[in-house]
Amino acid sequence: MRNTLHIVLLLCLVAVSCGPRRIARGDMENIMTDILIQDQQIKSDRSLRQAADTSLVYEGIFEAYGYDTDDFLYSMEYYLQDPSRMEKIMGKVADKLEAEVKVAEKEVELENWRRRLMDIYRQKVDTTRLPRPRTRPVDTLHVRFDADSVWFYRDTL
Questions:
Q1: How confident is the model at residue 123 (pLDDT cuts 50, 70, 90)?
Q2: 154 sits in which H/E element
Q3: What average pLDDT does this structure show over 2-25?
Q4: Is residue 28 part of a domain?
Q5: pLDDT value at residue 124
Q6: Angle at CA 65, nearest 5°, toward 63 and 67?
Q7: What is the pTM of this model?
């Protein structure tokens, strides 16, 4: 009888552990952020839009965090049952996306600044003609000779 009880408990434990797992709130925020960024990339690139199967794209995101599609769907169902919890998650996602936008804007600004500097440099190099140095007669120059680390000057005047 005791062995039977152990077997039943073990089977119940195995049955419960086989189902999808709930994704932790922090991971859910990161996954949702990555999904929204990936969706925007797909929408902005026509070739990706035609070729992309979003379920395959999402599967890669889930795997990066150690989950699968069933875990995500189960977690979405769980979080949608409590709207305030889902609102907090989406608020954090919005904050992360705003931070990403600020970083991207700074990168674009720096790249534009670099391009403007390079354009100015190219214009200066193309339009600037360096003056030819004036040549002076050799006998007015002080010529320095280095020989055996003894320095001497030859004055030709």
A1: confident
A2: strand 150-154
A3: 66
A4: yes
A5: 72
A6: 55
A7: 0.61
Specify the number of domains making up the chain: 1
Residue 120 pLDDT > 70: yes
Structure tokens at 70: 């069933």
When comparing pLDDT for 7 and 16, which is higher?
7
In a domain, 70, yes or no: yes
Q: Which domain, by its residues, includes 86?
A: 18-94
Q: Which amino acid is at 71?
A: D
Question: 89 in a domain, yes or no?
Answer: yes
Distance CA 72, CA 30 (A): 12
Of 30, 23, 103, 128, residue with least CA distance to 69: 23
Amino acid at site 23: I
SS3 category, 153: strand
157 vs 154: CA distance, rounded Å: 9
